[in-house]
Amino acid sequence: MMTSLIIRLGRSARTSLTADRVSYARVGALVVTLLALPQVLRAQTPAGTPITMISVLSFVGSNGLTYTAADTLTLTVGQVGGVDVIPQRSVVTDPSTTVTFTHTIGNIGNGTDGISVTATSRAGWTTRVYLDADKSGTLTAGDALITSPVSLPMATTAGMTVKR
């Protein structure tokens, strides 16, 4: 059994105004749902993946004979970087208050990337960023101060804690 989806973009005769509005609402909800998906869920083609296309041309010449020509083209996917920080946060606080934020950084590119992570204070206060090794959201003995880029493979995440 074959099922098909028909989406009408123009106006057409309808027997019911409600039916017309429902069909447009369904399409609108589908579009909103697709656009609202987080970037990490969208599929990427890994960097270095070869994509091969074979073209074949057959034709009949003026002499009545059939001729065939073929060619192969191979393209290699290049690397595209991308990173996401979830959630983005900020706070206004007194100078004597210690503030700790936990975040997740995600590699939304199509290959392994080194991601440099820094934090700044508008007031010039010292901030430190730690790799949250166990993703606990608190500073523990295994959490190391980030001093160099964090290496993340494609579609993976790492926890980090920012402390001021």
What this model shows, in words?
The chain has 164 residues and is mainly beta. The chain has a domain at 83-163. The protein has one helix spanning 17-36; strands at 50-60, 66-76, 83-86, 100-107, 113-115, 128-132, 144-145, 150-152, 157-163. The strands form three sheets. Strands 3-4-9-6-7 form a five-stranded antiparallel beta sheet, with no helix packed on it. Strands 1-2 form a two-stranded antiparallel ribbon. A two-stranded antiparallel ribbon has the order 5-8. β1 and β2 (66-76) form a beta hairpin.
Amount of helix: 10-25%
Shape: rod-shaped
Spatial strand arrangement across the major sheet: 3-4-9-6-7
H and E string: HEEEEEEEEE
The profile of the biggest β sheet is: 5 strands, antiparallel
Mean pLDDT: 78
Output the structural class: mainly beta
Return residue spans where pLDDT drops below 50 for at least 5 consecutive residues: 1-41
What is the subunit arrangement here?
Answer: single chain
Distance between the termini: 62 Å
Proportion of residues in β-strands? 25-35%
Roughly how many Å is the radius of gyration? Answer: 27 Å
Q: Give the count of helical stretches.
A: 1
Give me the count of strands. 9
